[in-house]
Amino acid sequence: MTVVAEKETLGFQTEVTQLLDLMIHSLYSNKEIFMRELISNASDASDKLRFDALSNDGLYEGDAELKISVSFDKDAKTITITDNGIGMNREEVIANIGTIANSGTKKFFDKMTGDQSKDSQLIGQFGVGFYSSFIVADKVTLRTRRAGDDADAGVEWTSEGKGEFTIETIEKAARGTEVTLHLRDDQDEFLNSWRLRNCITKYSDHIDLPIIMKKDPVPDEDGKIDETAELEDETVNKATALWTQSKGDISEDEYKEFYKQISHDYQDPLSWSHNKVEGKTEYTSLLYIPSTAPFDLWDRERTQGLKLYVKRVFIMEDADQLMPRYLRFIRGVIDTNDLPLNVSREILQGSKIIDSIRAASVKKVLSELAKMQKNDAEKYATFWKEFGQVIKEGPGEDFANKEALAKLMLFSTTETGSEEQTVTLADYVARMKGKQDKIYYITAESFAAAKNSPHLEVFRKKGIEVLLFADRVDEWLTNSLTEFDGKSLQSVAKGDLDLGELADEEEKKAQEETDKNFADLVERVKTNLGDKVKDVRITHRLTDSPACLVVDDMDMSANLERMLKAAGQEVGGTKPIFEINPEHPMVVRLKDESDDARFGDWSSILFDQALLAEGGQLEDPASYVKRLNTLLLSVA
User: Are 495 and 576 in contact (CB under 8 A)?
Assistant: First the structure.
């Protein structure tokens, strides 16, 4: 059949050109990763063919034995990786090789450290693995044909990594993809059977389809090698799915290498859980807890990290029905016999089997974390630093595991005074005062703002510990986690201060007397501030500061309101309650001030200072400065 020549030269996306330059000139410390990436791509192509062939077995074209072949030619100085997977058509080659989607390259560059060893390991995480070929090659040729297309619909893509590539239509009898690397002059080490086999067993031993190489020639009795003899094929890797093996047959190093293969992470996982479940629902799960957060952890559009298999046939990646969003960092595989091979995402959403697997898998992950927290505090501290804020999303979306999640959480408190989050809620409860019946907390935009908030003054005076919430997610956490161990969580900046039995009777009587003595001042300040405030009252939570702002128990906190406004959301606006400290000299002087104009200035200054102390912004900073300067001159 005659192929119509359709050859054209195209330029790479700008980011790809930058990436190619980086590959060629910088990442030489771990050159062998090109084998890991190309074999991983070939494995993915085979998985996709398996899945598509479930509904159209004609895609196999009479060859259902999937495999990956690796060969080399010393004379031509080439290495070739071939698969008989799904293949690509012309448009897919241009889209997948000529460009990089989802800003993967930019994020890759942002993560660059300057350490060649670490940077080379980042490649696979950002969807740029194919380009690692140019670390060792000065020219790459890719020949491919999509399964089901005619033989004359093959595509050849060629590039020297210098800003452009050529693409043309060719005839290719076999489906799948063949990548040929024309090695640089200084890369002859890879033209060696032992070297290539070592790379395969190191990075790809548990790819669940055979990786084939020719057997090494065996010398005869005289030590001569018959160059004309046909060499047999042999499988280099184990070619068995790791998760199907007994736990006792798998070493720690094998678990770690498999994690790196499926996650493209260059660091070892913190922990993993490998389980075979039998009974009403039968499945095998291998779940990993990473040691570092992925670059796109906070991207709401990112996909999840689990691969779903049915009867060891790959079905889909990033199956978000298998894990809640707050566990989106979990990596691994789930393989079940109880789902049909033609399962779709729509079927998954309404599947009781999936619901059962998900519930059990979540409990397994939380159990693994609880075990780590109990037995290895240092390792758990590493986990919490990377993923603590994500775990805090949990109580809002997983009511069934709210208690287990609450036990896993770590916080900063006034007791430790450190920004490092090390205190559990159980630790806090164990240290509570004898008559204390609430868990007190404060939310703020930063740790410093929380630690130095005037709302904490009476709590420090009485030695009552307060949780310091400064993560953005903490505002949502307090809406969903309202109690722990029978103790309700109470914001120190909401509602009227009620220390319950922690306040003795003499204090209460003295406070009532003070309220009466300052009743006129309260009304006068309230009239002066007008609609700036919801109410004005005497405070009993301050010892050093003259005033503070609080909100009612059911009102939105000022910190949350600021966060929502910063995110572009319209917020009605909660008017604060202005509390003044009757023992502070400024308030005492205000009480005796007879000049109405000066009284108004003093009241406004105290209000603005209270607003600034809680992290708010002044509506009219210039007027505040003017009033303050006038006040300073009057007392000078």
Answer: no
Give the separation between CA 248 and CA 239, rounded to whole angstroms.
Answer: 18
Sheet (strand 313-317) strand order: 271-277, 283-289, 331-336, 306-310, 313-317
In whole angstroms, what is the distance from residue 341 CA to residue 283 CA?
14
Q: Is the pLDDT of residue 61 over 60?
A: yes
Residue 428 neighbours by CB under 8 Å, 6+ apart: 411, 413, 439, 465, 467
Which residue, among 165, 176, 114, has the nearest Cα to 143 in the 3D structure? 176
What is the tens place of the pLDDT at every residue in 271-306?
999 999 988 889 999 999 999 988 778 776 666 678
Tokens 């059911």 belong to residue: 554
What CA–CA distance (Å, rounded) separates 181 from 204? 19
**Is beta strand 211-214 parallel, antiparallel or unpaired with respect to 176-183?**
unpaired
Report which of residues 188 and 224 the model is more confident about: 188
Indicate if the pLDDT at residue 439 is higher than 80. yes
**Average pLDDT of the chain to the nearest whole number:** 86
Residue 102 sits at the vertex; the CA angle it makes with 99 and 103, to the nearest 5 degrees, is 75
Query: What are the structure tokens assigned to 161, written together?
Result: 């990594």
Express each pLDDT in 381-395 by its tens digit.
999 999 999 999 999
Q: What angle do CA 206, 211, 212 make, to 5 degrees?
A: 150
- For residue 610, the one-letter residue type is A
Residue 484: closest CA among 446, 428, 434, 540: 428
Q: Which residues contact 482 (CB under 8 A, 6 or more apart)?
A: 488, 489
pLDDT at 205: 81
Q: What is this structure's pTM?
A: 0.73
Alpha-helical (H) ranges within 172-241 are 193-203
- What is the DSSP annotation of 532-557? G-SEEEE-SS-SS-SEEEEB-TTSPP
Question: Which amino acid is residue 371, in one-letter code?
Answer: K
H or E element that contains 491:
strand 487-491
Residue 455 has pLDDT above 90, yes or no: yes
